[in-house]
Amino acid sequence: MPVRDEAAQLADQIAELRHAIHREPEIGLQLPKTQRKVLDALDGLPLEISTGQGLSSVTAVLRGGQPGPVVLLRGDMDALPVTEETGLPYASTIPGVMHACGHDLHTAMLAGAARLLSARQAELPGTVIFMFQPGEEGYAGARQMIGEGVLEAAGPRPVAAYGLHVTSNRLPCGTFSTRPGPMLAAADQITVTVHGRGGHASQPHLAADPIPATCEMVLALQTMVTRKFDVFDPVVITVGSLHAGTIDNVIGDQARFLATARSYSTRSRNALAELVPELIRDIAAAHGLGVDVEYKAEYPVTVNDAAEAAFAGETIAAVFGPERGETAQFPITGAEDFSFVLEEVPGAFVFLGACPPDRDPVTAPTNHSAVATFDDLALAEGTALYAELALRRLAQG
Ligand SMILES: [Zn+2]
Ligand SMILES: [Zn+2]
Predict the structure, then answer these.
(1) Using one digit for the tens of pLDDT, what is the confidence trace for 44-82?
(2) How far away, in angstroms, is 33 Cα from ligand 1 center?
(3) Which of 199, 240, 373, 384 is close enough to 7 for a disulfide, judged by CB 3.0 to 4.6 Å?
(4) Apex 43 CA angle, 42 and 47, nearest 5
(5) For residue 101, how far is its CA from the centre of ligand 1 (angstroms)?
């Protein structure tokens, strides 16, 4: 029976696991309840299972009956600090925590793929590592799992790695999207504190007002984006938080802002890390103010290997039909810590549409929204793709 049909037969079981994870979402690197559910779902399968030291990850290794290479499949497991407002029957029961990015689907699909591939163990030409990862949403859980040896879990390193991500909008349900090269942006954080000298608002010449200089910095960053960077290697800087002062007639001592910087190449990313602090310091100096500026690297660019992205596209076309896959014209400005895996192993990251069929993908709420919903219809398809990517890649040797 084709893998896709077997995945369809498992659909109810996969949905049941997904709903259980969705009801009890957990944030960050410690997800003991989610880990327990994954371990229960894998129980009885012919897998070598290990769990994380510094995080509640699960690494499962399936050794096939035939010799061959190693392939890694990754699913992230963590939720977000969002209060769910979907009204779904399996909505979160934990106030302030929601699987708003669909990682509950990834976890359930990866467990489903482990079941499908385990049933084919005897004829499997090589080894599959299933990487169940906590802490994608800002905790760099993938980097930590690499540090704890997930890439060496089977002995030799994987020849290829694949990650899936569902999306509640953009793509019709059950369609896939990937591309060669940059797939998601690098994300870095800029923290700036401008130090002035407080005083009476009516006599600014006797004080050192940090606010006008801070406003110049915010605008100068936008000018810098357009004057210092190649338009075909874009960057985005957004000041998402800015705080200064208390009341109209007082000049405060300091102003503070936080910004995110997104880029798609090492060149632009390195330039940002150099130019942003320089610009901020120079503006502060021009106004006779002190400043602390920190440029913190968060996630690197998620770069798909060209051959692996093409292979993923061919697999999608062969399994589901060519109309179900697209080559994305542009990368996404979001970021992903699967980027750390793709820095070590060639591979591909693939988006899977999970927009409910009764919603328009163009206007449907985005991932991270309190009303984002991801349809169960995507579960069997994602499970089948995980399994097919592993089977077909191992067969290539
Ligand atoms: Zn997310
Ligand atoms: Zn996500």
Answers:
(1) 999 999 999 999 999 999 999 999 999 999 999 999 999
(2) 20
(3) 384
(4) 65
(5) 5
